[in-house]
Amino acid sequence: MIRALCAAVLLTAVPLSASLPAPAARAGTMPLQATTGAACARITAPPPESAPPTSVNTLRQAYECVLDNYYSGPTLDSKVLLRDALAAYTQELMRRGADRPGLRLPALTGNRDADWAAFAGMVGAGDPEALRAAITGMVAGLHDDHARVERITPPSGDGPVGTGIAGLSAAQGPRLDPAARPPLFITRVLPGSPADRAGVRPGDIVEKVDGIPAFIGDKVNQSLVDAFASGTVRLTLKRPTTGRVRTVKLTEGPLEEQERAVTSKALPGGVTYVKVPGFFEGAADQVIAALKDTSTTAVIDLRGNGGGSPREVTRLLGAFAHGKVTSYFCPLKGDCTANRTDDSVPLLGLRLVVLTDRACASACEDFSAAVKDNDLGTLVGTRTAGAVSGPAEAYLLDDNSVLLLPRVRHLGPARELIDTVGVPVDHYAPMTALDLAKGRDPGLAKALSLL
């Protein structure tokens, strides 16, 4: 998500992919490290803390890693991969006024080795920053929401920093939801943060960011992502309860550590409400423990849940049904592998209502689709994100960056493709800026009205 926002959020959820280990300290056990000339290596230990510069060999590793390990790698056109890489490479040079007159794509044939040799001969030693951009551009050209490149930075000794704005109504991973409707509003503010001290509150409508309007007509302005990328941001905010408009300048500052934990509360009629911020390790058991004394209904709130481990999904589903297929992981060729409920988990015997929104992504959608397709409960809120291409595996490149690539495609229990489409709800109940500002929850209210 946008750095000025998400620097505030200490990863409450991980995508349906390999989790990234923190960088290894300078002292201690020797971590895995890719070597010059070698292929990309599947990560088995944290990458070293110090990162060598990105080289042409790093780009070669990424190119070959995609062709060898990505879901559709065997059928990819090497010409397109290298085209996307060079497009990003030249754009980075142009942004810095460093474009080269003879830099152009050589004649390519579709032979991966011959094409690489021609490309590498044209690039020469290369520019490290532009080469990093080339890798990012090549991976972005896959148009896969679980394929990306990460540079793992060591945690700051001073702790986390950020603005404290931990959620936007249109936020959807590293971009803004193209289906978002106006207005854009803040959904979460961390206590004690710069935003909190400036009086920013959930429900505040974002009219402009550094003077840039949040919407152009009825379409969310994707350029806000760049506007939020700096450590200081100026927001024009409207309080929905009063109509007051003001401008607030926020600068990143220290934040309190945010513990990843499930929270719950008992409601009248034997109902327990459980908020699940992510399918992190142990999340399923935390939910099950919170529901052990519930007599009738579980309301599981997955709004804002960015995903996590498929194992946590099947374990939690095992508390509501046994013997069910929860999803399929499918290679490009060959048979799909069925994922099933964890039948070692005792059944709770509860009615289930699940709250979802457009920020429910990846493993969150895996869970939601399993509930819907297997008739395990009712979905309330809004359609999910449609960001569940498949679980990714992590590969280390020789500049210590990490390349995440799905090897399989995710399908729902009915063998339907959920990626890019999302899971539809049974009852539409979106959150509005005024609802948040007044402390109302239309999703929960709708869920309770169904019981």
UniProtKB/TrEMBL annotation:
PANTHER family: CARBOXY-TERMINAL PROCESSING PROTEASE CTPA (PTHR32060:SF30), TAIL-SPECIFIC PROTEASE (PTHR32060). One of its GO terms (biological process) is proteolysis. This is Carboxyl-terminal processing protease. Residues 1-24 form the signal peptide. Residues 154-173 are annotated as: Disordered. InterPro entries: ClpP/crotonase-like_dom_sf (IPR029045), PDZ (IPR001478), PDZ_6 (IPR041489), PDZ_sf (IPR036034), Tail-specific_protease (IPR005151). GO terms for molecular function: endopeptidase activity; serine-type peptidase activity. GO terms for cellular component: outer membrane-bounded periplasmic space. Residues 148-237 form the PDZ domain. It comes from Microbispora rosea. Keywords: Hydrolase, Protease, Signal. It comes from the Bacteria.
